[in-house]
What we know:
heterodimer; A: alpha/beta; Rossmann fold; CBS-domain; six-stranded mixed sheet; four-stranded antiparallel sheet; globular; B: mainly alpha; MetI-like fold; 11 helices; 82% helix; 0% strand
Amino acid sequence: MTAAAVNGKAATGSAAEPMIRLEKLHKRFPGQREPAVRELTLDIPEGGIVVFVGPSGCGKTTTLEMINRLVEPTSGRIYLQGDDVTDVNADQLRRRMGYVIQQIGLFPHQTIAANIATVPRMLGWDRKRINARVDELLTLVGLEPAEYRDRYPKHMSGGQRQRIGVARAMGADPPVLLMDEPFGAVDPITRVRLQNEFLRLQADIRKTIVFVTHDIDEAIKMGNHICILREGSEIAQYDTPQHILSNPASPFVEGFLGSGIVLKRLNLSRARDVELSSEWPTLPLDASAGQVRQAIVDSDKGHALLLDAQRRPRRWVTVRDLTDGPLEEAGTPVEAVLQEDVTLQDVVQEMLTATLGEAIIVDSEGCYLGALNHDTINTAVRAMQQEAVDREREQARAGMREAGAIA
Amino acid sequence: MSGAIDLVAPPGEAPERQADAIARREAYRGQAETRWQRVARYAGMPLFVGAAFLVLYLWVQGQQIGEIEQRVLNANAIRRAIAQHLRISLWSTLLVLLTAIPVGIALTRPWARRITPAILAIANIGQGVPAIGTFVVVYLVFLRNGQNASIVGLAIYCFLPVLRGTMVGLEQVDRDLIKAARGMGLSKGMILRRIELPMSVPILLTGVRTALVLNVSTAVLAGFIAGGGIGAILLQGFGLRRQATIVTGSVLAGGFALLADWVGRIVEDVLRPKGL
């Protein structure tokens, strides 16, 4: 596996043609002794997110910009869908790839619709098709077309601009998106939300995405594959986040992963992947006080969770809270309510600050699915570790078999 | 706890709604304010200049005007002088725009980086030399026609501010916009037309307004090289030592310079791209 990773082939296990292939790509900027990118060979598989991550100055952005030839390589070849695009018209090539930068670069003098229509307009789409596409994309990134179409970028918040930047990059439905620290310039809360949204979006659109970041946590969260780069864009390890976390290829990778690998692994699993506890008694808001009391006494939990008619969690109540008043106002409002596709790291964060130490997990409509607490997370983490150990053992065994076969 | 709510919230909820509201409020207030300010600004200048001209007219009416002075200071002669003055200023403004803006665009292209300082040095001479000198040189050396020599002389004099305005306007365009545009496959020409020029319009137009004002006020010098215009009235006033004529010439020159500035500001407001 290590040999494969060094050759720039992720352990994808499939022999399908890569969407993008970089072959001995080399870049030396004039007036600099050391090349920014040294003879990089790399395959990017179709339909997944490959994250370039590495310390600043390692050449990851230069590498990304060579894919759409904003930076022209000194030598080497670039292939897109099997075609050699090293010498084709760069403007034409870029229209086949979406591009998102940290500063987004929305055109302030153009409406949101005109911004999103940039590439379709260049490709000569007719007006009707462009308008339909703009509305489709706005809806896709969660903005109401009628409300936002004719606004100007200065009237949008940072998060909204970022979404429009993504919509604009997908204007003509390119097979490839290049994203250079796309969520780097927004506040942490918005960043988490944009990341989750983007992953949800990617589950539908399945684009081939090359994503640059310097943040290993973001890389672990976003990447189907992570390519850890060191100076000169040398590949330190290119593999799935799971493998990198369980088998760092070198002390450099280990150092870059930093401390708290277990915590980082929490970023790989989502609430829906683990077994939720359903120990809490749940009752509808229109239950009688007697029913609630009975349910609390029957369980040994001390609290009951009240759900509204749509099964959305509303209140925590104890026996003492059951006075004459309506149940909607009894007890305490629920906190730490999270959707099932958040990462376990988000869950732990919320759990730690919640009074009851419970995170409540809901589906996309907000309906109650179950709860997560310290014990359930603990079990999940141990299972993950066991899995990693098993996998390593299996690989070692496979390696021995292979060696035997050669001998 | 807000983190928890944010994670559950569907896109476009909570903080963004707030940002929306703030943005909308600001936009509304911004428009409401400028609308009133604009009306005041637009109406103020012509009213002021009109009042000055009226006062001038009444004052001249009250003066004893001799027969010789009558030949300069009559409605027909003044009208002709004003028309000449404006013709010279407008042609020269047009000439400056048609030369300085393309040169400004060219000098900001990467391939021209090396010759930029040399061109700027030459343009500096145009403004550094006293305007009257430029006029006389153009008149004596190139064009023995007062009016045409004035137009060219003025154009040379005003070349630098417009060139500078164009270059500064293009250079202050956010590099990230150009990078994003390049990354989406806009060609260099498209980037210039669709991004750089519209984005530099406000600064470019400030240069144009400066040129217009300079042109209208400096066109007074046309009088010295037989180009006519308001300058001719002034010169005759000095020659005849008639106070009424001198005052009339200077008030007219000042008034039209102010009006030129006023027109320039309106043009700036109208042509400024929305969303900036």
